[in-house]
Structure formats: C-alpha cells, structure tokens
Design goal:
By secondary structure, the protein is of the alpha+beta class. The chain is built from 14 helices and 32 strands. The strands form 8 sheets. The chain has a 9-stranded mixed beta sheet with strand order 12-11-13-14-23-22-21-18-19, with helices on both faces. The protein has a 6-stranded mixed beta sheet with strand order 27-28-29-30-31-32, with no helix packed on it. A 4-stranded antiparallel beta sheet has the order 1-3-8-7. A hairpin with a 5-residue loop joins strand 30 and strand 31. Helix 2 crosses helix 4. The longest helix has about 30 residues.
Length: about 725
Amino acid sequence: SPVVAGMVTLLAGMTAPALLNPAMMKQILTQAATPVPGHHIFEQGMGKVDLLKAAKLAENYVPRASTIPARLDLTECPYFWPYCSQPAYYSSMPVVANLTVLNPLSVAGTIENVRMELNADGFAGDTALLAAEFSHSELLWPWTGWLSVSFRVTRAGLSMNGVVSGRIVFDVVSDEKGEASTVVVPLRINLAPPPPRSRRLLWDQFHSLRYPSGYFPRDNLAIKSDILDWNGDHVHTNFRDFYTDLRARGYFVEVSGGDWTCVDAANYAALLLVDPEEAYFEEEIQKLADDVYTRGLSLLVVGEWYNSGVMKKLKFLDQNTQSWWLPQTGGANLPELNRVLAPFHMALSDRVLDATVEVKGGGKAFRYESGTSLFQFPKGGRLFSVRAKDTVSGTTRYFPIMGIYSTGTGPGNGRVAVLGDSNCLDGNHRRGMPCYDTVDTLLAFLCHNKTDEKLFPPALILHSAFRSDFGALPQPMPGTHFARYSRVLLADNEEAEGETEGYDKSSGLPTTRRQRRPQCLAEILERRGPLPNISTLAGPAVNESEALAALPKPGGGFYPSTRQGWPYFALGLMIGGCALGIYIRYYSWLASMLQQLLPKGAFPPRRLLDDSREDDELIDNQHINGGVAGGNGGGGHHGSSSVGVASASTSVAASVAATMAAMTATTSGLPAATSKMMMMNLGGGGGGLDSEAALAPSSSTGVSVASTTIGRWGRVSQITKRSNNSKEPLFNKV
C-alpha cells in the first residue's frame, strides 16, 4: 500500500546501505507488527505495522535469518485458527504448517540440518509422541524461500491428551560468504485421543481446482461481479462457516491433500466430496466403491452446475493475454463426478436450477442457486424434490435435488447422500440462509444410519430405479485444455507415466485413459491385493427402459411430469391465440351487449375521436361523395379507395351508401359526432386483410386529408389526420 511504501522509504533512510536488502526490510516490518485482536493469521498476516518500533529495530539491526511466522503456537486462538480449532490425534491426517524463510545474509543461500526438538512433555518414556517431516526450497533466492512441516502423532501418543512443546531448528547458509545463521521456531501443539469413527469426517481437497492458473468459473451464476473461482473451495476459506458449524456439532474434520489411494477408510465415517473440479484416477474410483460397499465408508457428494451451453456463454477475451478464455469446467466437473457415482447407479444432470427449498421438521428454508438435479438414482433410495426453474430451458417443474441411498444392511455397507448445490454452504457467495441443518440431516444418515422421516418419509422410497425424462447427462465440452491444469490426467505433450486401461461407464466398452500414477497405489496393492472390479460390487446396470421418470410425493403419489415442458408452451400459445381471435371477432357485439345490460354510463363506448376537437374539424358524412375502388377480386391483401369530398353535393353513391349503412350498424350507440366519421371500405370480392380510404379536403370545413385502415372483418382500425405533411391519429380500433 502507499502507506507501507512511505514507511519503507523512511526506514531505508535510517539503515546502512551495506545492510539494506528486501529480506532485511521485511524482517523489521513483520517483527514490529502488532496482531489485530479477533482475527486469525490468514486474515491479517503479522498484523498492524508499527513504524516507531520498526525504526528502533532498524537502528540496532544485526543480519540473521528468520521465518514468518516466527513461532508455531498451534494452541493460540483465534490467531492460529484453524490449527487451534481441532487437536491432532493418532491416525489423523498430517497437520501441515508452511513457513516463509528470510535470508538477509545474501541473495542466495540454502537450508540445512532441519530437525524437530521436543521438550520432556513430548515423550512417553523414550518414545516421541510427535513426528515431523520436512520439505523446503533447494535454494533460497532471491533473499527468501520456504519450509513446510508435516506433523503426525505417533502410536505412543494414542492416549495423549494435552500440549506438546518443542522447537523447529535449521541452519541457513549463505552462498556468498559461507556464513551460517541458526533459526529456532518455538512449537506448541495440542494432542488428544482419536475420536470415534462416527465423528470423523474427511474433506477431499485434492480434487478441487481453482483460478489461477486455469479458468474455473464461479459456482453461483447470479453473482456477476466475480466470474472466477478464487477460493479453491477449501474448508478453511469459503466453507469456513460450514467447518465451524461441523465442529460445533461435534464432528472432527480432516483435510486430505492426496488422492483416495492414500486414505484408510476404516478411520472415517464419511468422505465429503464438495464441489470438485478435478478428474479421478480409475484406481481411486475402484477403491472408493470397495470402501463404500464392503468397508463401511459413507459418501457425501455436493455437486454444482455443468452445462456446455452455459459454459460457452462465459467465454471472454482476456485483455492481458489477448486470447479467448473458455471455462475448463462448470461450477463442478460433473462428467467426472458421474464416474464416481456410476458404481452406485447414480448420476447428476446438465440442468441449471434456481429454487427456494422449504424443509419440513423445523429446518430453515434456503436458496438453491445454479445447482443441478439428480438424473439417475437406484431402487431403494429416497429422492427429495422441489419445484424449481431450469434456467437453461426456462421450464418450471419438480426436480429431484437431494437423495439418500444405503448399499445394504450389513456392518460393512456404507451409505451415499447427494445434494445438487453447494452455494448454500459457501460463505462467500451464499444469498439467504445456509443449509447446515439439512446437511446435518444427511450426515446423521451417513454416520449414524438415522433417517429423518420428515425430510425423507417412506413415501419417497423408489420402488423402481429412477431416470429423469428431462435434460441429459452432462458431456465434456470440446475445445478445453483441462489436462494442462489436472494433477490426474496427462497433457498431450507430457510423457505417459502410466496409462490405465478401464471402461466407459455409459457404454461398458474398454477405454484407455492417459493419467499419472496414483500416489499410494503400490502400497494399496501390497496391503490389500488387486482392487475389485466395480461390476462385481455394484451389480448389473439399470435397464433404462424399466426405469421410472415419475418423482414420488412426500404424502404419496407422484408429481406431474412433462417432457421438456413444450406441451405447456403450446397449450398456452393456443389458448392465447383463441382468446385474441374471439376478442377481435366479437368485441363490438360484446361491447353493445354490456352497454345494454349495465346501467347507463357504467360501460362508456370507446372514443373514436378526441372530444376536444372543434366541430368544424369533423367530417360530415353528408359531404362524402365518391366511389369505392380497390380490393376487387377475391383474396387480395390490400385494397384502397378514394372518396372525394364535395362542398355542395348531397348525393352519395350506392356503394358508399352501403358502406355507411354497415358503418352505422356497426357503431350504433356511439356519440353523434363520432358516428359522422365512420366510413368503411367493403372492397369488392372481400377477403382482403386491410383496406385504406383517403379523404380529399372539404371546402366547407377545411379538413385536411384523412386516411382509414379497415381490418379484415370491416372494423375501422385507425383514422389519421394529415395536415402540413404531418400525421395525427384521430382514433384507433373500434
């Protein structure tokens, strides 16, 4: 900021030129900063800068290496949130902390002799309660680098309940002078016994991708101000409030940064797969299916929108790169996610829905924005449906947005729950109330096998497999370069580290998938043997011809269904057309009848002329003389007639007399001044759509030329007064 830039300028003037470098300046600014109360380190960094304190440090500065942050007190809340929000325990995912290393000794340097030293409270006898693994920059250049620490509780800490303290120690060696500076980072971490399996949830972070560097669009299409997914869908960023709610309900949430081959399913009640964008290893899908069908793991899937047509509309020209940017996925990567759901005979659709979800049983209503619907669901599952608008087709009807399914009743059988929208969990783009209560109901089903009979009554049980008659399965959009940003797939220019032979879930045909090798595949194969074939776990595929498209109602019966919604549109168009025809054909008759039935003045006739016009501007039908021309012959579209206006003539041609007689009959009950203006072109042969009559000026009245447009059934639709090359309508339709 400009303020910090000004401070740097002042501090640079107080520092000896030989000592001044970027690492030195960053050191004194961060060490002098004061943390802001009530905010964690990822919100504020080191805190509020203090210029006077920084000036004192600059006056007495001695070059030495340091880290940001300078300590790792993972028990201090809220500054070290989320580390302080949950203890570490045996068999949990590693606790990872990243340190920025500052080296003011020279522009280049190296990190050596990294180790963790525990105090006496970190041992049980001679065995350490905590183990640490390190990774760091090979070269500190220019002036800075990084050090990552991964903590894991050992078996000796299985029953430990308390704080373990110690320090992280390493040396920074200067390449220029060979000088070494030892860095000591104090450490405190809280340990606890492992919670029961029913309380342990695993958040899958490995399969989340974000901008930069690929174009991954926002989840809520209604938010126009931010088109890019910056937050990465992390449980500690845009899903922070959801994480806090889960902790308040007694769940322990761990984050997995690796693929599923590295996960021991026996430790967790449920795997949370929320708004994923990444592809999946074939071995991951096989292992997950085996874990759910035979090892008691449950699965919560929260999807998002994916529609190729919508994605094409989000294409834009990037001014920095001068190239067209095309989304690599939708809100979530549904074609890949459907591969995960295929072993359970489930699939999400390509619809983009907006709705308000009313939850029975005391739950709060929440908004369902840019979500998807369930396209396929197995027999025995329960589907929750709402009336929603499909923004792709504009159709409003009932869509299934949530479902639960149990793979069996044995101890090794897990359960699956699916929700089609994550925006009600997202703290950044959520509009309205969150859906935490609804998700808690799903977790109660997954973790404790408790079904909320108010949300999912027995009437919602599917007695046959469901397959929607609306929408389609989402297909990958051509023209993207998704493999460039994937940690699973190999790009065209990458060497094939491992090509996996699999099969396509929709066709059942073998397919070759160019992918990397899963991280822990060798370990899994050694410990568990070959992964089972999915078809042996899931059973035969659902026969589409036998699947039902009807959605059950909570109170029994089924919601009405329609294919694509076009019959309703056609019916409405037909009814509207009939109503318009009746109005045009019978308006005069209806107006006359209502005028006779209602009290006088209750139904005033339509004004054909402005009553404010002077009488001498009216055209007296006694001055009309001429003949009707045009429209001769059947079926002509337009006919025109000229009627000359004579000042003294009182004779009217027979055809004009017939015209005026019909006009008088048509306009009975209208004001006298108005009826004088009525004129109609009967047009020989009939059938013409429109007729026009032009009136020549009258010498007695000085009225300018006027023209009339006569409708198909003889109604005067407009009279226009022409004077001095201008037009002014005298009256409209009768």
